[in-house]
């Protein structure tokens, strides 16, 4: 059921202000808001120094295989929302803007190449970074490595897990 709005009755006067509006003292002495916090400014400086140390010769190329564009962004495979650090060199991968947008949409290939890491991943970041570099360089075919949910680590596909397979309860 739609509500019906009533119109203004004819012959009524509009509301009138009885007192003037005055600007208070506090509004004259306002401080502008900071665009970023001091902590975030410090993290950004550390991140820029880290990037300059990792790629001293300038702008690196995109890490996605078969992409030769210059990288626009530094992507964090283990995002801050998943307990990642933006200043950890093992958690920084250069990507071009189109591929960074695709990774942000959580495409399956991003997990295959280690460009996104699940929050439950327990493998140390330095190990994950070396696996990611080998996958992206083509040293290890994607088909030869997989995530073992029992061991919670990236291992070769022929890995013989000592955990028994979960059986369906009938």
Structure description:
The protein is of the alpha+beta class. It is 28% helix and 8% strand. It contains five helices and four strands. The C terminus is likely disordered.
Strand proportion, as a percent range, falls in 5-15%
Name the poorly predicted regions. 166-170
Q: How large is the radius of gyration? A: 27 Å
Report the total helices: 5
Strand arrangement within the widest β-sheet reads 1-2
Could you give a short description of this structure?
With 170 residues, this protein is of the alpha+beta class.
What's the arrangement of secondary structure elements?
Elements: H1 25-28, H2 38-54, E1 73-75, E2 93-95, H3 97-104, H4 108-112, H5 125-137, E3 145-148, E4 153-156
Antiparallel strand pairs: 1-2, 3-4
């Amino acid at each position: 059921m739609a509500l019906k709005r009533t119109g203004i009755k004819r012959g009524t006067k509009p509301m009138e202000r009885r007192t003037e509006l005055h600007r208070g003292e506090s509004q004259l002495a306002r401080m502008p808001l900071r665009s970023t916090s001091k902590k975030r400014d410090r993290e950004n400086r550390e991140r820029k120094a880290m990037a300059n140390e990792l790629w001293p010769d300038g702008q690196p190329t995109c890490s996605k295989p078969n992409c030769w564009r210059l990288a626009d962004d530094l992507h964090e495979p283990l995002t801050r929302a998943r307990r990642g650090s933006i200043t950890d060199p093992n958690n920084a991968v250069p990507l071009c803007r189109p591929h960074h947008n695709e990774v942000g949409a959580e495409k399956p290939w991003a997990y295959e190449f280690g460009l996104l890491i699940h929050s439950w991943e327990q493998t140390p970041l330095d190990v994950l970074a070396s696996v990611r570099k080998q996958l992206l360089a083509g040293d290890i075919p994607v088909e030869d490595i997989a995530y073992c949910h029992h061991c919670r680590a990236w291992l070769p596909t022929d890995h013989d897990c000592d955990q028994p397979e979960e059986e369906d309860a009938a």
